[in-house]
């Protein structure tokens, strides 16, 4: 049992990365408009995040430093500051969207408008981060998020056109630029930078040593494919229900409906519970990551294993970030649209996150004989090119398609 | 010296961006813009009716919870109202657009009327929904 | 021990004997003949000094004008992926911003003094 629970860090990280509120809606939208023809993007994304999270986890287990800590050493303080500003802005806006997502899930359960839930969600989030043990949080939300598995079963019951899985072309009536726009958003959502920052900072909080290398790898190779599989659940159920109707998906309510159609109230309840856990998990992930990135850039003490008094600056950043996120939401900005923009902008900062990880993972000064092997380097370089291509294409395609219109 | 360069570059980028945005905002609406706005309103209305129909049918079968259905109907109402507002907010710039307006405006009104009935009669919106779909197909 | 200051020291994390972060090596102090590192300087004012310009002044301003903390090089026990000190963090003067936030904000919230759980 204890061994089983040791992988909840990877599961939570992956669920927070793959099925956070923006991904849920944009993956469902992809399914509704393009059927299963984006399945390959999910696969490419899963392999990519596995390659880099494995490197990052190895760096952390061997050097006992979270990767963000090392980025400044390798990029120098100036470029690292650009990276910090980009990463922090994206993390903060994602945090706002996640708090909104938790509130939306509560609205679906209670019927009360989500804006009423926002302050309560933010307060519970902050209390959880202030008072509850890291490993407890990880277990509760990582495991509750697994109730989204019901979507995969629903997919088999609802029977989307599985033959589309092998196609890499947009279905009739849709054009290539929009198809690529959605593909970039899905890829960026698989590789969101806060996943590696959170994962490796979590590893340091759990005091990984070189002996935990296997543990880190199990976390990566189990957690991320699982997260990707859950995202596929949204893609497939939405393709089954909405594609034949020729309609689009842009609310959380629409994204969870297929489970109700397949398994009635129990199915719907399980999916909403899963969405609640996944978005709350992602909210924890992003609020802690906001603190991690700032603290690790400046070298401040950070983390939940210290008493809050000993990491006053870190806890201040977390608190202020949550307050800023609430303020952003109370302007009544649509949390779902917010993340759709963020996915595209995060595509732009991806290279600045993953290049230093590749460089550090080849540095014997940090890793001794645990440096990248040939396979890790080949895949790492290939993915760096994919990431660069996505980053360069992101903005022009966004303008060309008018945000995927 | 370098600071000056940076300053000048930043300033010109900002000026260009604002100029571009300003041009796009103040540019008069032409046929193409109007068509895009009309089609997107029609699509939104179609999706709102379809979703409400799905949810209503599921609710009658006991597949979804009451609060869920309520907030889904609410989302549909808001989406429909938002789409209609976007469409009626633009003056038709020429005669062709006016014809398009006269075709879509009654459909949006009907959509609004049937949406209120859908919770009890899931298929109340089907005809309007089909008409909206035909409108979208004709104009894309 | 020979170290390349730019590559092996600058921007590296300083941790105390228990592995608790103390700060980054934001700058170093050299001996008069510039052949030895006499102390590590840490704090945003040291970092701001390295940046220079407007940006540097902004970063320095986040400390409220406090001087960078000076850690004599004799306290360094080991340099690997981090700079390890031979003493506990509590023996160093706490950074001004940390102390201020502890006193005025974080320290006032119930539970600030308890480790997690």
Ordered list of secondary-structure elements with their pairings:
The complex is a heterotrimer of chains A (405), B (140) and C (117).
Chain A: H1 2-5, H2 8-18, H3 21-34, H4 39-63, H5 67-110, H6 114-131, H7 134-145, H8 150-158, H9 176-190, H10 193-205, H11 213-242, H12 252-298, H13 312-330, H14 335-360, H15 364-367, H16 374-401
Helix pairs in contact in A: 2-7, 2-10, 2-11, 2-12, 3-9, 3-11, 3-12, 3-14, 4-9, 4-10, 4-11, 4-14, 4-16, 5-6, 5-10, 5-12, 5-13, 5-14, 6-13, 7-12, 8-11, 8-12, 9-14, 9-16, 10-12, 11-12, 12-13, 14-16
Chain B: H1 2-26, H2 31-60, H3 66-88, H4 95-117, H5 126-138
Helix pairs in contact in B: 2-3, 2-4, 2-5, 3-4, 4-5
Chain C: H1 5-9, E1 13-15, E2 21-24, E3 27-30, E4 37-42, H2 44-51, H3 53-61, E5 69-72, E6 76-79, E7 83-85, H4 96-104
Parallel strand pairs in C: 1-7
Antiparallel strand pairs in C: 1-2, 3-4, 4-5, 6-7
Helix pairs in contact in C: 2-3
Q: How would you describe what is shown here?
A:
The complex is a heterotrimer of chains A (405), B (140) and C (117). Chain A has one domain (2-401): Up-down Bundle (Amino acid/polyamine transporter I), CATH 1.20.1740. Helices cover 79% and strands 0% of the residues of chain A. Chain A has 16 helices and no strands. Chain A has helices spanning 2-5, 8-18, 21-34, 39-63, 67-110, 114-131, 134-145, 150-158, 176-190, 193-205, 213-242, 252-298, 312-330, 335-360, 364-367, 374-401. Chain A starts with a helix and ends with a helix. Chain C is α+β, with helices and mostly antiparallel strands and 117 residues long. The radius of gyration of chain C is 16 Å and the shape is globular. In chain C, strands 2-1-7-6 form a four-stranded mixed beta sheet, with no helix packed on it. In chain C, strands 3-4-5 form a three-stranded antiparallel beta sheet. In chain C, a hairpin with a 6-residue loop joins strand 3 (27-30) and strand 4 (37-42).
């Amino acid at each position: 049992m204890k061994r089983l629970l040791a992988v909840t860090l990877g599961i939570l990280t992956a669920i927070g990365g793959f099925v956070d509120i923006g991904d849920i809606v944009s993956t469902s939208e992809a399914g509704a408009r393009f059927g299963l023809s984006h399945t390959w993007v999910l696969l490419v994304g899963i392999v990519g995040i596995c390659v880099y999270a494995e490197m990052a986890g190895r760096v952390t287990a061997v050097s006992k430093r979270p990767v963000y800590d090392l980025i400044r050493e390798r990029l120098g303080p100036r470029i690292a500051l650009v990276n910090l500003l980009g990463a922090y802005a994206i993390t903060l806006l994602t945090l706002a969207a996640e708090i909104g997502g938790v509130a939306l899930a509560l609205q679906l359960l209670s019927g009360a408008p989500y804006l009423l839930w926002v302050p309560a969600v933010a307060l519970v989030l902050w209390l959880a981060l202030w008072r509850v043990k890291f490993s407890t949080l990880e277990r509760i939300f990582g495991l509750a998020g697994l109730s989204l598995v019901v979507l995969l079963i629903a997919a088999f019951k609802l029977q989307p056109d599985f033959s589309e899985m092998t196609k890499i072309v947009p279905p009739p009536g849709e054009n290539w630029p929009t198809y690529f726009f959605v593909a970039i958003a899905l890829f960026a959502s698989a590789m969101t930078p806060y996943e590696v920052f959170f994962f490796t900072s979590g590893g340091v909080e759990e005091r990984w040593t070189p002996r935990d290398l296997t543990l880190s790898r199990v976390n990566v190779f189990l957690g991320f494919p699982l997260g990707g599989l859950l995202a596929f659940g949204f893609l497939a159920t939405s393709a089954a229900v909405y594609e034949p109707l020729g309609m689009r998906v842009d609310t959380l309510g629409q994204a969870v409906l297929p489970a109700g159609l397949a398994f009635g109230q129990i199915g719907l309840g399980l999916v909403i519970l899963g969405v609640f856990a996944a978005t709350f998990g992602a909210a924890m992930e992003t609020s802690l990551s906001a603190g991690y990135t700032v603290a690790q850039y400046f070298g401040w003490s950070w983390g939940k294993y210290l008493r809050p008094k000993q990491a006053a600056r870190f806890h201040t950043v977390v608190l202020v970030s949550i307050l800023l996120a609430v303020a952003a939401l109370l302007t009544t900005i649509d949390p779902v649209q917010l993340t759709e923009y963020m996915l595209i902008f995060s595509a732009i900062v991806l290279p600045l996150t993953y290049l230093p990880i590749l460089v550090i993972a080849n540095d014997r000064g940090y890793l001794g004989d645990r440096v990248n092997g040939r396979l890790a380097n080949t895949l790492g370089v290939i993915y760096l090119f994919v990431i660069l291509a996505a980053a360069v294409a992101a903005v022009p395609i966004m303008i060309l398609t008018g945000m995927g219109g | 010296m370098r600071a000056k360069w940076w300053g000048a570059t930043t300033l010109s980028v900002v000026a260009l961006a604002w100029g571009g945005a300003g041009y796009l905002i103040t540019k008069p609406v032409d046929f193409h813009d109007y068509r895009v706005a009309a089609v997107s309103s029609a699509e939104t209305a179609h999706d709102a009716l379809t979703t409400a129909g799905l949810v209503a049918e599921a609710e009658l079968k006991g597949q979804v919870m009451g609060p869920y259905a309520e907030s889904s109907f609410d989302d549909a109402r808001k989406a429909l109202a938002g789409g209609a507002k976007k469409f009626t907010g633009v003056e038709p710039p020429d005669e062709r657009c006016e014809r398009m307006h006269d075709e879509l405006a009654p459909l949006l009104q009907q959509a609004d009327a049937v949406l209120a009935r859908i919770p009890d009669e899931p298929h109340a919106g089907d005809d309007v929904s089909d008409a909206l779909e035909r409108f979208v197909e004709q104009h894309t | 021990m020979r170290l390349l200051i730019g590559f092996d020291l600058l921007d590296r994390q300083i941790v105390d004997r228990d592995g608790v972060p103390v700060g980054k090596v934001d700058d170093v102090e050299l001996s008069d003949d510039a052949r030895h590192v006499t102390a590590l300087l840490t704090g945003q004012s040291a970092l701001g000094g390295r940046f220079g310009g407007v940006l540097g002044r902004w970063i320095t301003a986040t400390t409220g004008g406090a001087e960078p903390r000076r850690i004599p090089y004799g306290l360094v026990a080991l340099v690997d992926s981090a700079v390890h000190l031979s003493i506990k963090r509590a023996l160093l003067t706490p950074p001004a911003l940390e102390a201020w936030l502890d006193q005025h904000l974080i320290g006032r919230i119930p539970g600030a003094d308890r480790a997690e759980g």
